[in-house]
Amino acid sequence: MKRSTLPILVIVLLVPNLVFAAWWNPFTWFKQDSNSDKQQVQQTLVKYQEPVNYSQPTLKTFYVQADNTRVHDCASLSCKVIANYPTNTELTLVYASATDLPDWVQFTFPDSNGATTTGYIKSTMLGENKVVIQKVVPTGTLCNGDYYNQCPSGQNFVCPSTGKAYCDTPKTNDQMCVDKYGSYSYFAGQKTCGCKTGYGWNSTQTSCVAVQVKNGYQSCSESFPNETWDGTYGSNGKYNCICQNGYIWNSTQAICVSYQQQYLQQAVDKANSVACQTAKQNQQIKQKELDDFEASNPPNLSLDTMQGIGGGIQDMVAQRLSTYVQAVSDANQAENRACLP
């Protein structure tokens, strides 16, 4: 009896304590309810949260902000330049805005061979918006599709049939002769070119070639008889020639003649001048005599009228009139002979 009472007593004492500890403690009732609500809320949030797809990054187009922007093969200004981009070149990058760009932006692009190349560009050269380029109204002279400024003073604007225009300095007359006939030619005046001393025309008159050099005395005496060299040169480089002793220039300064020839010629010229003047005076006298005779006789006096009248007086008047007319005719012929040019 005593042996069975002990287990029963243990059960009676422990079971109530366990039951009341788990289910009948008022402080545990609210605590359990609160935890249950939190777990339910967390489960609800997790249940309706949308999944993030990290396999498709955000892409944005950026634009080059300046012309001739350099692309390097590494992230440094000292690196090799492998490309130059014009303004508003588009680059699609994995950045949300320009503020997210690193100092050097890495990107890939196809090279001239079609291969993919990696390049680096400064972030300061990129922007989110295109650059508004102001159109400049062209000015100047149009030549083969391009405009050119005015040439400096003294130069001519030259527009070739193809290629770029240029400014050209007008050539002097001597330069044009040199271009056409060679470096030994010069401008001789009156739109003609000549050859310098020691050079002469070739057989086709197309260039100046070297000839046997003659001294000034030989050149003057062969070119102009009775002339010699005075030891000086003209502005064109040729010898200055003068008349030899005993000779002087003729009246036209074309050749040298002896003093005797010159004096004789001068005497002949003077005599011809005197004869001409005398003949002119004689013609004037004879003409006046005829005019006076006609004025002292009746009007309409002529050889025909005198011969028609007849009689001694009329014959005498007609004879005198005929004499005056013949004298005037002779004087005119003498003047023409004496005053030949």
Low-confidence runs (pLDDT<50, min 5 residues)? 44-48
The major sheet is characterized as: 3 strands, antiparallel
- Fraction in helix: 25-40%
Shape: elongated
Mean pLDDT rating = 77
- Helix-strand string: HHEEEEEEEEEEEHEEEEHEEEEHHH
The proportion of residues in beta strands is: 15-25%
Rg calc: 64 Å
Number of discrete domains? 4
Describe it.
- The structure is a single chain.
- The protein is of the alpha+beta class and 341 residues long.
- It has four domains: 60-127, SH3 Domains (SH3 type barrels, Roll), CATH 2.30.30; 136-170, no CATH class; 174-260, no CATH class; 265-338.
- It is 39% helix and 23% strand.
- The protein contains seven helices and 19 strands.
- It has helices spanning 2-23, 26-48, 173-181, 216-223, 259-295, 303-309, 312-338, and strands at residues 60-64, 69-72, 81-85, 90-93, 104-110, 116-122, 126-127, 141-143, 146-148, 156-158, 166-168, 185-189, 192-195, 199-201, 208-210, 227-233, 239-243, 247-249, 256-258.
- The protein has a three-stranded antiparallel β-sheet, with no helix packed on it. Strands 2-3 form a two-stranded antiparallel sheet. A two-stranded antiparallel ribbon has the order 5-6.
- A hairpin with a 2-residue loop joins strand 8 and strand 9.
- Helix 5 runs antiparallel to helix 7 and helix 6 runs antiparallel to helix 7 (312-338).
- It is elongated.
- The N and C termini lie far apart (197 Å).
- 8% of the residues are buried.
- Residues 44-48 have low confidence and may be disordered.
Give a short overview.
The protein has 341 residues and is an alpha+beta fold. It has helices spanning 2-23, 26-48, 173-181, 216-223, 259-295, 303-309, 312-338; strands at residues 60-64, 69-72, 81-85, 90-93, 104-110, 116-122, 126-127, 141-143, 146-148, 156-158, 166-168, 185-189, 192-195, 199-201, 208-210, 227-233, 239-243, 247-249, 256-258. Strand 2 and strand 3 form a beta hairpin.
